[in-house]
Amino acid sequence: MRNVGIVGVGYCPQFVSKRKDVSIPEMISEAVDAAFADSGLGPQDIDAIVFGNMHTFEGVNLPHLWSVEHIRALGKPVMRIATGGTTGMTAFHAGYYHIASGLHDVVMVVTFEKHSEGDAQVGLLGIITPEAVAMMMAGIDLTGEGGMGAQGGGSAGAITYQAVSWMHKSGATIDHIDAIAAMERRNAAKNPYAHLKDPEATAEKIAKTPMISYPVRYGHVCPTTDGATVCILASEEKAAKIADKVAWVWGVASCASDPTTGNLIEGLITDPAEQMQCVIAAREAYKRAGIEDPKREIDYVEIYNGFAHQTLMYLELVGMCEVGEAHKLLEQGELEITGRLPVNASGGVVSTNAIGTSALNRVTECALQIMGKAGERQVEKEVHKALAHGWGGLMQYASITILADKPKKL
Amino acid sequence: MMEETRVVQGAWELSTFHFNIEARGINLMLEGFKEKKLKGIRCHQCGMVYLPGPFYCRKCHVKIDEPVEISDHGTVRTYTVQYADIRGNPMPEPRVSAMVQFDGCDSWVMGVVKCDPKDIHVGMRVKVKWKDQPIGNMQDMEAFVPE
Fold first, then answer.
1. Cα A253 from Cα A280, distance rounded (Å)
2. Are strands A48-52 and A106-114 parallel, antiparallel or unpaired?
C-alpha cells in the first residue's frame, strides 16, 4: 500500500437551487476547471477518473460517459460509483484505491447532483422500485393514508423515527435540534459554496419554522441543491511535486447493513438510530489510521447530516463522544468554529445537499481545514487530523475517511 | 450568468417495467390477515422471527420456511406525529405513526396509531385494530390502538 494525498479541490462557483444557465456536463466542467486551477494540474496529468452521483435522480443513466469530454477523460479509464448518500465518499475511496494499489499516480474524483432537473422523491422511490410496487399492489399506501406503510415514501419518513429513537436514548430534546440547525446555518454563511445561509440564525428562529413531522421541522432539513465537486488525489512521490499543502489519507472504511434501516448485524432490527454499520466503519477506519483514542486525536469532524439531529447522533456513533454527550457539548459551545470539537464549519449537508457531492464535500472540507485553506470558515484550533463521515444507501451504508497533515508512516 | 439553457421534458414510465419479486413471505402474511392473524417466518438456525418473513434468514442467509404466528400486541419503539404530507402540504389533522415491535417478533413494522398525539411515547403498549371483514390486503390492519 502507498500513501495517497489530496492535492487539489474544486467546487463549481455556486451551490444553489436551480442552475438554469448550464447543463449537467457544463456544471461538472466548472468544478473540474476549479480543481485544475487549485492544483496547477491539467488534463494531461490525470491518469484516471472516478465519477459519482445518485442513480435516477436526473433520469440520466450514464452521466459520466455523457460528460466524458467535460471531465477531460478522452483516452482514459472512467468508472462510476453509486452508493446513495455516501456516493461522493465511496468515489473518493475508489480513487484512493487506484493510487494506494500502485496502479495509478494521479486520479481525479468527480461528483455532481443537479436536483433541479429531476425529482428526489421519485429518485428515492426508484432505488427499491420492485419492492415498493409490490407493496402498493398489496394495498400499502406510500403516501400514508392507509394503516401499514404510512411514511413509507422518501427519506424523511424513516428519519423522523430515527430522530425520536435517538432522543429517547440520548436524552436530547427538540431544542437541541433547533440549536444545532442554527449553528449549521450560521457556519454556512461563512462558506461561499453553501446553499442555505443565515448569519443571524438562532435556535428560537429555527423553532418558528413549520413542523413537518415531529421532531423534524422545516428548519432541520437539507435543501435540494445543484452543484459539483472535484477532488484530485496523488501518490506520495507525485504529491510532493504538485502541492505545498497536502491532506493525507490515513484510513478509509465502509460498512453495509440490511436494507430496512440498518441494524441486523447486532441482531436487533430495525432501530433506525442504531446505525451499527457506522460504528463498525468508524472502528475499522481508526484501526487503519492507527488511532487509539479518537476523542483526543481527532481535531475536526465533518458529519453527513441531511437532517440536523444527525450531527449530534453521528458524533456519538463515530465515538467522538459518549451517547448522551453530544447535546451537552453543543450547549457548552464546543461544536462551534471556535470550540474544542468543531463540527461542520462548512454548514454541513443540512445547509447544502447536491447529493452526489455531499459525502465528498465532507472529505474536501476536512482537507481544506488541514491545509489551512478554509477561509472564513477555518476553525480556530489547529487541525492535524480530521474525520469525514457519510451515510447513504437505504439508510444502511456508512463510510468514514480519516485525513492528516502528514503522510502516514508505512 | 450565461443565457438560459433550453428545457426538454422527459418521463420514465414505471408501468413499462416487469419486476419479479419473491413474494412467499408477504403472501403468507396477507393470508393470515384474512383470519386477523399475523403470520411470520422463523429461522430454524438462529431463531430470528420476521414479519413479513423472507425466504432466507437475513442474518444467517440459510433458507427458512417455518411459519410462526405472532401476537398482534406490541410495543412502540419509535414514533412521529405528521403535520405535512409527502409533498409538504399541511394535513387537516396531525397523524400519529409508529414503528412497533410485536411480541415475539424481531423485526419492526410501521403504521398509524389512533391516539392523541400527546399520549404517544416510546415503550407505549399497542394492539392491532383489524377491519371487520378482512380481505387479505395491507389495509386489513386499520391501525394500532392503545392496549
1. 9
2. parallel
3-state DSSP percent of chain A in helix, strand and coil, to 5: 40, 20, 40
All domains of chain A in start order, with CATH: 4-119+222-402 (3.40.47.10)
Contact between A273 and B20 using a beta-carbon 8 Å cutoff: no
Phi, psi of B62 (to 5 degrees): -110, 155
CA distance A306 to A156: 9
Q: Which of A142, A143, A160, A164 to mutate to test the interface with B (most CBs of B within 10 A)?
A: A164
Q: How confident is the model at residue A87, as a pLDDT?
A: 97
Nearest to B143 by CA among B48, B79, B67: B79
pLDDT at B137 over 50: yes
**Which pTM value belongs to this model?**
0.94
pLDDT tens digit sequence for A251-279: 999 999 876 654 555 445 678 898 989 99
CB contact under 8 A, A142 and B86: yes
Nearest residue of chain A to residue B112 (CA atoms)? A147
A365-377 pLDDT, tens digit each = 999 999 999 999 9
Angle between helices A174-188 and A309-317 (to 10 degrees): 100
Coil/strand/helix, residue A72 = coil
Q: At what angle do helices A355-371 and A87-100 cross, to 10 degrees?
A: 60
The pLDDT score that the predictor gives to residue B2 is: 58
Beta-carbon separation of B78 and A23 below 8 A? no
According to the model, what pLDDT value does residue A141 have? 60
| Residues in chain B closer than 8 A to A270 (CB atoms) | 99, 107-108
In this prediction, residue A154 carries a pLDDT of 38
d(CA A183, CA A178): 9
Cα distance from N-terminal residue to C-terminal residue, chain A:
8
Does B100 contact chain A (CB < 8 Å)? no
The answer to whether the CB atoms of B82 and A213 lie below 8 A apart is yes
Q: Which residue has the cell 436530547?
A: A172
Alpha-carbon distance A71 to A209, whole Å?
40
The one-letter amino acid code at A346 reads S
Q: Cβ B48–A212 below 8 Å, yes or no?
A: no
Q: For residue range B28-59, what is the model confidence (pLDDT) as tens digits?
A: 999 999 999 999 999 999 999 998 888 888 88
A270 closest CB neighbour out of B4, B107, B140: B107
Q: Please tell me the distance in Å from A122's CA to the nearest CA on chain B.
A: 10
Task: Determine which of A57, A143, A161 to mutate to test the interface with B (most B C-beta atoms within 10 Å).
Answer: A161
Virtual torsion, Cα A335, A336, A337, A342, nearest 10 deg:
0
Chain A nearest C-alpha distance from B74 (Å) = 14
Q: Do B138 and A139 touch (CB under 8 A)?
A: yes
